[in-house]
Amino acid sequence: MSAIERYRELYEHEKDSNHKMLSMIDGVPADARTDPRFARAVTIAAHLAACRSNWLKMIETGEGDEPWWERDVDPATLGPRYARVEALWTEYLAKLDDDGLAQPFIFADGPGRYRGHVEGQVLQLVGHSDYHRGQVVLLVDQLGGETVETDYVNWICERDPRWGEAE
Q: What pTM was estimated for this model as a whole?
């Protein structure tokens, strides 16, 4: 499997995990939604969507335009945000090849300008998403919501015949 094929696979796992995370947030009991931890879970989920959106824009144009962290996020906006950003990233990764992964890009962050490369940023986002989804799962659990597994191994076992019970 080429590097870009691996990153496409990892992004398919991320999309599946995102949908599970959003379902977990939606499943938080109504009486727990006034708890500040619910707002924190929604804020973290919005942050993940903003990061994916901003970094794609920074790779392509050098500048992102969404706030990294929002307050008072309406949970109803999360589904459409994720649908939009996932479609954009899926399209971007479909067009990217292994040579494109090595391409540098210049991006603005506050008053500074920095240099990165596409593969490093794609890989960073994979870990970043796992990290923050774990925070959301913990908050949902604390709020009495049902949680589900989002680990890669659970996802790949359902898709790859090389994974499964040993005979």
A: 0.92
- H-helix or E-strand containing 46? helix 36-61
Report residue 146: phi and psi, to 5°. -80, 135
Note the CATH number of domain 3-108+116-157. 1.20.120.450
In the chain, where are the structural domains located?
A: 3-108+116-157
Long-range contacts of range 105-108, CB-CB < 8 Å, 24 or more positions apart?
A: 105/58, 105/59, 105/62, 106/62, 107/58, 107/59, 107/62, 107/63, 107/64, 108/58, 108/62, 108/63
Tens digits of residue pLDDT in 30-63: 999 999 999 999 999 999 999 999 999 999 998 8
Q: What are phi and psi of 164, to 5 degrees?
A: 155, -170
